[in-house]
Amino acid sequence: MLGEDHKNIRRRIAPNFTHKALSTYTSLQQIIILKHLKLWVEKAQVGDSIPIRILARDMNLETSQNVFVGPYLGLKAREIFERDYFLFNSGLTKFPFDFPGTGFRNAKLACDRLAGILGNCTTKSREKMENGEEPSCLIDFWMQDTIREIEESKVNGVKVPPFSTDVEIGGYLFDFLFAAQDASTSSLLWAVALLDSHPEVLAKVREEVAGIWSPESDTLITSEQLIKMKYTQAVAREVVRYRPPATLVPHIAIEAFPLTESYLIPKGTIVFPSVFESSFQGFTDPDRFDPDRFSEERKEDEIFKRNFLAFGVGPHQCVGQRYALNQLVLFISMFTSLIDFKRDRTDGCDETVYVPTICPKDDCKVFLSKRFIRYPSFPRVGELVK
């Protein structure tokens, strides 16, 4: 999207990622992360290693559903959603043959059904926000601001703002859910793999988190505590640089662009810049996993900003960047604090595969066990999402 349409939709999405909104999300994220970490340890109690790719994806699926659409996605709708989302995800790797029975056609039909379900969620949120209730998930924050704009339009006698119908908003929710599941799952898996292969980094993360938050406190990590975890945040950013989930992201050249001294990309050309390759250009010793490059002293993310493209740059930069990094930092903090883990290393286990984001070839097989006598006691999701 370009021009005023792009500015309008970005402006409407912005309230979903304010400090207040992100604080609401972090509480939900931690409750669901803890629930799934318990299940992972139980599953690994027989002493065998377990692959965690599907487990991490299930965790992200539940997290994103609760964070984005909260109480509006009922049990039956969740079952349909998970089935159709599987069909959609499978279709991404199929040839685009739009015939009945093909993976591509099944994905298109699933996509339409998913957008319909999310449109219904938007309608329910609109009713709740019109009654003046407090927002408890992303769609509520979006709808609260949308209702305000619609009312102002009526008072001023101007057209209803664009991108404000339930169907349109449901479609954008679908985009959010896709980004929050598969891309995030890739980063969680590489975080586990890289922390295992860099014990000195793991030790520093555990030391920092222990000095800020204790599982025995039975309290959720606050936004303020999250900000204080400088090194853990640097680890998260280095994971994303070192193994960017989406290796190729298509763009359109809105004007002629000099790629090199001898070649000019024509205006209107579809370009597939390699986010992966750019992450290994310019940075100091780029082939080394080194979280300190994102420290206040080195600031390589600012010095080599043109090469750090995992979240994009400029006006089309990822709107959910802060949410995605929060999910990764919260997971790293809780996973390393609550669980002892060790990779079940085999030849080629860290080679990358595309599913469609990049993941370790072995689906990140690990041995897991508890580090603490008991897990922290958090409130239930239902107590925050009503």
TrEMBL record:
One of its GO terms (molecular function) is heme binding. InterPro entries: Cyt_P450, Cyt_P450_CS, Cyt_P450_E_grp-I, Cyt_P450_sf. It is a single-pass membrane protein. PROSITE patterns: CYTOCHROME_P450 (PS00086). This is C-22 sterol desaturase. One of its GO terms (biological process) is sterol metabolic process. Gene3D superfamilies: Cytochrome P450. It comes from Trifolium subterraneum (Subterranean clover). Pfam families: p450 (PF00067). Its cofactor is heme. The keyword Disulfide bond does not apply. GO terms for cellular component: membrane.
